[in-house]
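May I ask for a sample protein chain and its fold as tokens?
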Amino acid sequence: MSTNLMIYILSFTIISSTAFCMGFVDVTDQTGVTGIGISNGIAFIDYDNDGKLDLYVSSDPNDILYHNNGDGTYKDVTDALGISFVGDGVGVVFGDYNNDGYLDLYVPVNDGPDVFFQNEGGKLFRDVTKNVRIDNPTRARSAAFADFDKDGFIDVYVVNENSPNIFYRNVNGRFFEDVTQIMNVAHSGPGRCCIWGDYDNDGDPDLFVTNKEATNVLFRNDGSGFKDVTKISGLGEAGDGTGAVFADYDNDGYLDLCFGGNGRVFLYHNNHDGTFLDVTDNAGLSISGERCSPTFGDYDNDGDLDLYLAVWKGISVLYENNGDGTFTDVTDDAGMGALGNSWSAISGDYNNDGAMDIYTSFTTRLNVLYENIGNTNNWIKVKVVGSMSNRDAIGTRLKLTINGTTQIREVTAGNGYGSQDSPIIHFGIGENTKANMLEVTWASGISIKLKDIQSNSLIVLEENLSAVETPCVKYPLSNYKKTLPDRSCLQNIYPNPFNPETWIPYQLAQLSDVEILIYDSTGRLVKTLRLGIKNAGYYTSKVNAVYWDGTNENGETVSSGVYFCQLKTNNGIDIKKMILKK
């Protein structure tokens, strides 16, 4: 049995409860995250990989990066980490563009050129805007990452107000190229925000763009490009949008769509046939201000997604999901209801207690961090890591099943109004003490299933090539120790068939001099890949598996056909077949 898919489980104990299902307290002052000046886009992220949610605030006059100290407080580390630029940030999105394991930073700027910072090991952010060929000097509003072509590198869509939007394709983690026209996503707005989500369940991310005083746009990803399906999807009448989010509020397995409008909020139900239906009134949703930005989270851990609306020129609202397609306003009972010009809101468990907290930004007053005081309901949190897919696992779909009811989530980078919810996936499971099944499908198509997931646990899942055909084993984080392989052999080559490249994973039972020999169907040696001395262990991720680009010793591309890969080590050989299809 393989232990190559790395799974960690960390258990927690619930120590608080309350009679009411949802309750929050304002902990802004004691945590130190009030913000300064005019605050706009915000993000819950873990920039230094210490397991705690840090906080970024885009604002005028200066953006702020807050480090989570792990004791209920935050520290401003903006200057210490080198984040500085001309202009005021209006949005924010984090994503690991070069797959080095650390979140990089894209800042849409209101009155200056956009800025791209590379994260140097969680210790410094370096301005690499020119190096990665980002060039957007206009009035940006927001941006969102997604791996639209599933090549393992995240791309970014940028929304502008006074000029056409820009779609940048990531070229092998080295730089970005403008593919706006080629991909048919050119749009002049004037734009406000963009979000990604696989609304039609075909395995690739689709794009929704909201506009100022203009019709919003839905672009369907058809693989080779995008198609404007706004009218045929039923979204053509809704315009003048602000913040937006995809979420499955009714647990039917399809992503629904919520966004702010002129003096109202919109909730569109996914009809499972490529169309949406406006159910806002039937759901009982409304606002008293000019516009709003939504964030979803299961704040009471009862198994369905609740909704918080950050309201501009009004009172922000918390809605509890009743589980029957309707919502109830519980703002007052939950101890919330901030008044002012709220730009956006995000959800995340900042103190790792299993209850989703809410942070909301304002342009006319200090920001607010609402700590969820929790209840006795149980929960499961999941962090997914990519290897064949992008390192952030953006685009990964998760399905959690409990007693016949299924909840779905997608890993995203960019939602609300130029903001970003926590990348840690959160499921509420009510009084249940375990989930029957968790199915995780990465963008690469690699999928795993885990049974009997215990409640009040954080599970870390790392995508692995061998998970395609090999069962996986889970270990508690508290006593996890990865055992060494009992034999040296090849794992499942992926992709296979392939064109023009593939990765060859393997495992070693002992220290060995390693070679990979590739033969054609006649037995002729095509290429030798000398790896040198390797320690015992697993070499099964995109980072450390053997890469073959489909060329021979002379660098010439080989023809289609059947090839054989031989692993040669000090204690034996192993052979697997692979197919190159052009």
Summary: Residues 181 and 319 are 40 Å apart (CA to CA). Residues 28-31 form the longest helix (4 residues). Residues 12-20, 466-481 have pLDDT under 50 and may be disordered. The first strand starts at residue 7 and ends at 11.
